[in-house]
Design a protein that fits this description.
Layout (H helix, E strand, L loop, with lengths): L1 E6 L5 H15 L5 E6 L2 E6 L1 H10 L7 E8 L3 H10 L12 E7 L7 H20 L12 E7 L3 E7 L21 H11 L7 E3 L6 H11 L19 H9 L12 E5 L2 H13 L8 E3 L14 E4 L17 H19 L4 E6 L4 H5 L5 E7 L2 E9 L24
Parallel strand pairs: 5-6, 8-9, 8-11, 9-10, 11-12
Antiparallel strand pairs: 1-3, 1-4, 2-3, 4-7, 6-7, 12-14, 13-14
Helix pairs in contact: 1-2, 2-7, 3-4, 5-6
């Protein structure tokens, strides 16, 4: 069995571990085993074919890194020696370009840049010693990505099986400003407990990432169905097995009635979402509207989940007065949004993913749960609000029968 490490957005580790176990179950893999979670990822093990499966099916993992070797180290020469010992020629040829990246936690080494150079030199020297030539380095679009990880005492070297990061699904052609990454959107949906068939509404959909992740789940489209992977260039790549894994995917019946809905204040964003839905292979209707979030109505009579990544800065003030300070504009926006949620979304569960930790105060609502996540290096929260009947009151009293963990006016 081979050891793998699947990095993910920080805070999504449990969601990824659950997803990996689900992939093992749904694909019938008897070899894929989920091990420990660490900040920023999940360790697992399995056959080479399990790396194929995870790359194809995981919506939350950022990559699937295959562990090549691990050893304690004292200096850069120890790292060079370990990398030089590895049979890189068994995995790829001189014709493939390479790139080396390194991550460290509490490493005593003074220069990660120098350590990265030593790893690159060791790989290249391995080829030169055997074939008289070195592979080329390509930092932009390499065929093979080699990752090193250092802690205080140990060094681990990985070969990336994914290629481009897995959040790059292969459909995105257009994005809005600072789009939510696809694997983060998928993780948010999983943490929120959304399942196909449950009404889902994103009233600030931007370029449509949350809607598209959900729509692909409804239709049964694997996240990796429209892209290629680094493992397809491995020397031991089994094209027949890969084709069988892909052929085992069966699409779901298309829904008879819409259950996924979106809107945005910007007509350009709505058009972009519509385009991206088509590019992602979505064959059923996802109703979209151009409307301010403060003016939306619940799209179904059956309560569901409202999940959104609220805008900030200029997008809040698309139709506002540019002379109003941004903070005042944000407070006004959230106060109006709060009224809309209270009056029109009774029975719905609302999830707001934001880096602005003051959102509940601006909404004048008490969250029932807040889950910390990181969007890259940016600390964020997924706030949950349970919208109950009786919100449209001004006295701040709890609705009759409201439980302490329900969203209530502040």
């Amino acid at each position: 069995m081979t050891s793998y490490f699947c990095p993910c957005p920080r805070g999504m580790e449990q969601a990824l571990a659950d997803e990996l176990a689900e992939i093992a179950h749904t694909t019938g893999s008897t070899t894929l085993k989920v091990h420990n979670q660490v900040p920023g990822g999940v360790h697992c093990s399995g056959a080479m074919f399990d790396a194929y499966r995870i790359n194809l099916h995981s919506r939350i993992a950022s990559r699937v890194l295959m562990r090549i070797a691990n050893r304690t180290y004292a200096n850069e020469n120890d790292i060079y020696d370990l990398v030089l010992e590895q049979p890189w020629e068994n995995w790829f040829t001189l014709d493939e370009t390479i790139r080396v990246d390194i991550t460290a936690i509490k490493s005593p080494l003074t220069s990660l840049e120098f350590t990265t150079l030593k790893i690159k030199d060791a790989v290249c020297d391995r080829f030169r010693d055997r074939f008289g030539k070195r592979p080329s380095v390509d930092t932009r679009e390499p065929d093979m990505r080699i990752f090193g990880f250092l802690d205080q005492r140990n060094f681990t070297i990985y070969l990336d099986t994914s290629g481009e990061a897995l959040f790059k699904r292969g459909w995105r052609e257009e994005t809005g400003d600072a789009p939510l990454r696809e694997n983060l959107a998928a993780g948010i949906l999983r943490v929120a407990g959304w399942k196909p068939g449950v009404p889902l509404f994103d009233p600030m959909c931007g370029s449509g990432t949350i809607l598209i992740e959900a729509a692909q789940m409804v239709q049964g489209i694997p996240p990796g169905a429209r892209r290629r992977f680094a493992f397809e260039k491995f020397r031991n790549f089994d094209a027949k097995a890969w084709q069988e894994i892909k052929s085992a995917v069966k699409p779901n019946p298309l829904p008879a009635e819409p259950t996924i809905f979106g809107s945005d204040i910007s007509g350009d964003m709505v058009a972009m979402t519509r385009h991206n839905l088509r590019a992602a292979g979505i064959l059923f209707e996802v109703p979209l509207k151009q409307i301010e979030a403060q003016q939306v109505q619940a799209p179904t009579s059956t309560p569901g989940l409202l999940v959104t990544n609220p805008p900030y800065g200029e997008r809040i003030g698309v139709r506002g007065d540019s002379t109003i300070p941004q903070d005042e504009m944000a407070v006004g926006f959230y106060q109006q949004l709060s009224s809309t949620l209270k009056q029109r979304f009774a029975g719905w569960t609302v999830y707001l993913f934001t880096a602005d930790l003051g959102v509940p105060k601006m909404l004048r609502l008490k969250e029932s749960r807040k889950t910390p996540f990181f969007n890259g290096a940016l600390e964020c929260r997924l706030f949950r609000f349970d919208m109950v009947a009786g919100f449209n009151r001004r006295d701040g009293a709890k609705p009759d029968g409201a439980k302490p963990d329900q969203a209530t006016p502040r």
